[in-house]
Amino acid sequence: MPDRPFGILVLNSISRSGLDRLPPGSFVVGKDIAEPDAILVRSADLHAMSIPSSVLAIARAGAGTNNIPVKDLSARGVPVFNAPGGNANAVKELVLAGMLMAARNLAPAQRFVAGLQGAGGPLEKAIEDGKKAFAGAELANQTLGVIGLGKVGCLVADAAIKLGMQVLGYDPEITVDAAWSLPSQVKRAASVNEVLKNATFVSLHVPLVPATRHLVNADNLRLLKPESVLLNFSREGVVDDGAALQALDAQQLAWYVCDFPHPGILAHAKVLAFPHLGASTREAEDNCAAMVADQLREFLEHGTIRNAVNFPQVEMGRESRWRVAIANANVPNMVGQISTALARAGLNIHNMVNKSRGDMAYTLVDVDSAVNAQLLAEIRAIAGVLSVRYLPA
Ligand SMILES: NC(=O)c1ccc[n+]([C@@H]2O[C@H](COP(=O)([O-])OP(=O)(O)OC[C@H]3O[C@@H](n4cnc5c(N)ncnc54)[C@H](O)[C@@H]3O)[C@@H](O)[C@H]2O)c1
Ligand SMILES: O=C(O)CC[C@@H](O)C(=O)O
């Protein structure tokens, strides 16, 4: 353990039930930590800030990591943790709310009723005369297209099936676990276009990456039926919002439900915009904060990597007091060079694990005696080694 507590810089409001998992003796947690060992964040834009060289890990208390410069951090050997599934139920419930709000015209209906305040005349008559304008449609038997069948998309698909909807799903990289968790009634689409052509409700649940920017755009919005509802709980940028507004104006689209408001869409009568509210429930905030706090603590204290978006899962039970954690490029002979350096220093390897994912690899080595600063410097100097940490228990 280090001779001082780990410093954790907190950049957004993070649930206490997560922060309380970082005990005061071992961690100093706050908004003003000068040289933090780690950063805990929700939606704050880390692209806009210079991340101090002291930072060993970033933990995102949520799913999306597009607000974090993951590539740059990978090059520094810094893992970026997130909380897969921690807020999925919260998002699912808001998607259902969005579908119902659109299908039943609830926002204009509510505005109509609020407008009756002080209008004079018999309220009952005004209500009965006015309600015709807000008659809607039921969800049952309609088709929902789900684009992105990860943690959120699978729950949305499942809930829609339970509501009696038909579900058409598209995800070219669906995981085996996600495929197993989907109800058998979900039909598989071969493309975004197939979903747009056949669904009346289309809900997006993909990360924002270069390949998903403007996934829904002027070209493919034309495929929608005029009564369609598009729901974007993914990210601003996944839909070309200008094209969505044009589709609304041209009556090629009935509603655009969006969790990422910006000046261009705020005032449109057919936009239902929420203030990035998908994950804002007590339960989701607690889940995500607890998950990332545990992952951060395990990493800082033992080098364990669980749920990093840029590193493999690496866990090794601790059987010796002396552990070295090495992040390195996934190139040949890294393990050979690390073991040779340890052997040259007369250290016996007690246990070792090395895993890779894409360009990144990570090695945990437990040795039978203490490691000195010179050996750590030698390992650090091996070409391809990105970071080295000594973690004596
Ligand atoms: N509104 C909110 O508050 C809120 C909350 C949680 C997540 N999100 C957003 O939703 C996204 C999804 O969350 P999740 O927890 O389900 O993530 P996830 O990683 O579990 O699922 C994402 C899925 O998208 C799929 N995918 C990637 N590219 C695709 C493409 N081109 N076409 C179709 N599918 C594609 C992946 O294969 C994966 O299965 C997050 O990245 C985040 O941006 C928003
Ligand atoms: O932290 C939040 O409120 C939003 C999180 C959400 O966008 C996510 O990607 O998990």
From TrEMBL:
GO terms of molecular function: NAD binding; phosphoglycerate dehydrogenase activity
Catalytic activity: (2R)-3-phosphoglycerate + NAD(+) = 3-phosphooxypyruvate + NADH + H(+); (R)-2-hydroxyglutarate + NAD(+) = 2-oxoglutarate + NADH + H(+)
Listed PROSITE patterns: ACT, D_2_HYDROXYACID_DH_1
Pathway info: Amino-acid biosynthesis; L-serine biosynthesis; L-serine from 3-phospho-D-glycerate: step 1/3
UniProt keyword Oxidoreductase present: yes
EC number: 1.1.1.399, 1.1.1.95
Protein name as annotated: D-3-phosphoglycerate dehydrogenase
Species per Swiss-Prot/TrEMBL record: Ramlibacter agri
Organism lineage: Bacteria, Pseudomonadati, Pseudomonadota, Betaproteobacteria, Burkholderiales
